[in-house]
Amino acid sequence: MNDLKRVSPEEANQLLADGYQYVDVRTEAEWAAGHPKGALNIPFLLAGAAGMTPNPSFVADVEKVFAKDARIVVGCKAGGRSLKAGNALLAAGFKDVVDQRAGFDGARDSFGKVTDAGWAEKGLPVEKETAGASYAELKSR
């Protein structure tokens, strides 16, 4: 199995310029509040009454949208979910998956202090709507 490569928000932004697709693995509500420009939303965990639970169709949902040789950057809020999501995609046979460390909001220490600035804090392109890219829209394909 390949090791998952982790990159900074700036490096992820450059990969997008080079043809990679950003898959935001945060919840639908998190994605709707703001996400990297052009990102597709496929949650790794789902928010529900009992809290966050694994999305049982995560890999299948990604497979519906992307070929196994697609060039994908995964990202989340702080880097934890995307690391797990990226490894799940590599284990499922995806060949070129990169994890954007620090996520959208940034990695934090146990006191809540940002230790690695995320996508938004770095001032990279953000939007709130991307036509056809929400999880609900992708699931209806």
What does this entry look like structurally?
The structure is a single chain. With 141 residues, this protein is an alpha/beta fold. The chain has helices at 9-17, 28-32, 58-65, 80-91, 135-139, and strands spanning 5-7, 21-24, 35-36, 40-41, 45-48, 51-54, 71-75, 96-100, 107-108, 114-116, 126-127. The protein contains 5 helices and 11 strands, in the order E-H-E-H-E-E-E-E-H-E-H-E-E-E-E-H. The strands form 4 sheets. The protein has a 5-stranded parallel sheet. Strands 3-11 form a two-stranded antiparallel ribbon. The chain has a single domain (5-139), classed as Rhodanese-like domain (Oxidized Rhodanese, domain 1, 3-Layer(aba) Sandwich). The chain is globular and about 40 Å long.
Topology:
Blueprint lengths: L4 E3 L1 H9 L3 E4 L3 H5 L2 E2 L3 E2 L3 E4 L2 E4 L3 H8 L5 E5 L4 H12 L4 E5 L6 E2 L5 E3 L9 E2 L7 H5 L2
Parallel strand pairs: 1-8, 2-4, 2-7, 7-8
Antiparallel strand pairs: 3-11, 5-6, 9-10
Could you give a short description of this structure?
With 141 residues, this protein is an alpha/beta fold. It is built from five helices and eleven strands, in the order βαβαββββαβαββββα.
